[in-house]
Amino acid sequence: MPVPVTEAVSPRRLIRDEVFLRLLDAIVQGDLTPGEQLYDAEIEKWVGVSRTPVREALNQLAAMGLVEIMPQKRTRVTPISAERVRALIETIGVLLRGIVRDATPLLTDRDKDALRAFADRAGSGPEMAELIRDRFLTEGFMNVFIRRLDNKTIGRLFTRHLPEVRRAFIAAPSTRAFEAGVPYLKTIVDAAVSGDAASAASGVGDFWNEALGLLVEDYSELEKKNS
Amino acid sequence: MPLPIKDSAPVERQLLRDVVYNRIYEGILDGTLEPGETLLDEKLTAWLGVSRTPIREALMKLADIGLVEMAPNRYTRVSPIDLRAIDEAIYTTGLLHEYAARTAVPRLDKAALARLDKSVKEITKHAASGDLPALGTALNGFFLEFERNTDNAVLLAVSEGLGPQLLRYVSVWQLPFDTTDIPGTIAEIAKAARDRDADRTADLIQQLYAPTLAQFLADYRRGDAEIDENPIV
Is any Cβ of chain B less than 8 angstroms from the Cβ of A162? Predict the structure, then answer.
């Protein structure tokens, strides 16, 4: 995601963003499947634009790890690899743990209300899987802490890497990781609301390692089966 | 995010856009291209002797890591020095280094420990001579050694990607850490790593970075009304 610059409205910019957002959404939601080959001409026809904005959007998606461009050969949706999912989840988890630790003492009453509403909706595992599809974990939970800490660099890093994580969540071979995660989410919210930064942070660690660890296992098993 | 390649592939094997990227990247970090300077395509094509396409691609990549700002049809320029962004990047790498040390210290091999020692010597030398750009690079290299040993390519890439913002702080150096004895503190961290004391290594790193958060909260954090509603887009 480009560093936000002063909003200059140019038609070309808007077209590029439009193509980018449509491709991004299609890849994250799985309409374009992992490993699927992408042809410029087909995308041009699909979105109704010329080659240049399509290439620019693909370059941007490649920088985010969602598309692989092999010059003169082929462009495809990056396949989901267990190793990559593990590395992404671990890295996001490290950052989120720090943010939750440091933002908890700063939370306002409105933030706490938002977190309580999040915990109430978290529900069971299968429901959780549905909610994640709707950016629930991002908007209802992570955003509250990131926004309160107001570190734009981390906001940008999450904007860049979370789509790939969300794609792995949405394509998850089973919902057991989410089922295991719900109790941790409630613990984190309880601790954060009561101002216990250390417990909230260690809850994030548990959610990330224990619950999402199951997702990595699911993908490893799937890779073994398919190889 | 690739840092400038110095000793790997021979030049002709690298993609032209990577060569262009590295030249502009280094130009920005060493100050040849000044903060806020407008980057005109025709000047860059003349300077580097290549066509417009690889230059545009390189500029987009540099915009991606925050070194260049592009406002279509208005300007493309070297990002002005942004103290807030630098502070944010230091805080963020602090979290990553602390975790990387906790994970990697138990498995550092002899070669890795030797590289840490070498970095300590460089840091001591550059701190003594007051060569700030070299000190910044050496500090960055010291901490990245932990990331390189974590077995996590994303963690390493994210830490490396923040390097450019960190290395820019040398041009506005205001003592990034709350210590006047950087070499001493770094030597202590290296010793804890050599003793295979992962928790102590990580705790020392956390202490070193803690003042950045305090400074950020005091100087830069904005009020509720000014913060973007959705920082993650």
Answer: yes
β-pairing, A67-70 vs B68-71, is unpaired
Listed by start position, the domains of chain A span 11-77, 82-226
- CB distance from B154 to chain A under 8 Å? yes
DSSP string, A145-159: HHHHHT-HHHHHHHH
What is the CATH code for A11-77? 1.10.10.10
Q: Are A87 and B155 in contact (CB under 8 A)?
A: yes
**What residues in B contact A152, CB-CB < 8 Å?**
84-85, 88, 231
Nearest to B71 among A8, A102, A106 (CB): A8
A11 touching B (Cβ < 8 Å): no
Is residue A181 a contact partner of residue A169, using CB atoms and an 8 Å limit? no
The reported pLDDT for the residue numbered A9 is 43
ipTM, two decimals = 0.87
Cβ-based burial of B45 (10 A; exposed 0-12, middle 13-18, buried ≥19): middle
Q: Out of A5, A59, A143, name the one closest to residue B231 (CB).
A: A143
Which of A60, A87, A138 has its CB closest to that of B152? A87
Q: What residues in B contact A6, CB-CB < 8 Å? A: 71, 74
Q: In chain B, what residues touch A3 (CB-CB under 8 Å)? A: 63-64, 66, 69, 79
Q: What is the pLDDT of residue B9?
A: 42
| Bridge partner list, B70 | B76
Q: What is the pTM of this model?
A: 0.85
Report, at the CATH architecture level, how domain B83-219 is classified: Up-down Bundle (1.20)
In this structure, whether the domain defined by B11-78 belongs to CATH 1.10.10.10 is answered with: yes
- pLDDT bin (cut points 50, 70, 90) of residue A1 is very low
Query: Which CATH number applies to A82-226?
Result: 1.20.120.530
Question: Out of A13-17, A152-156, B137-141, B163-167, which region has the weakest mean confidence (pLDDT)?
Answer: A13-17
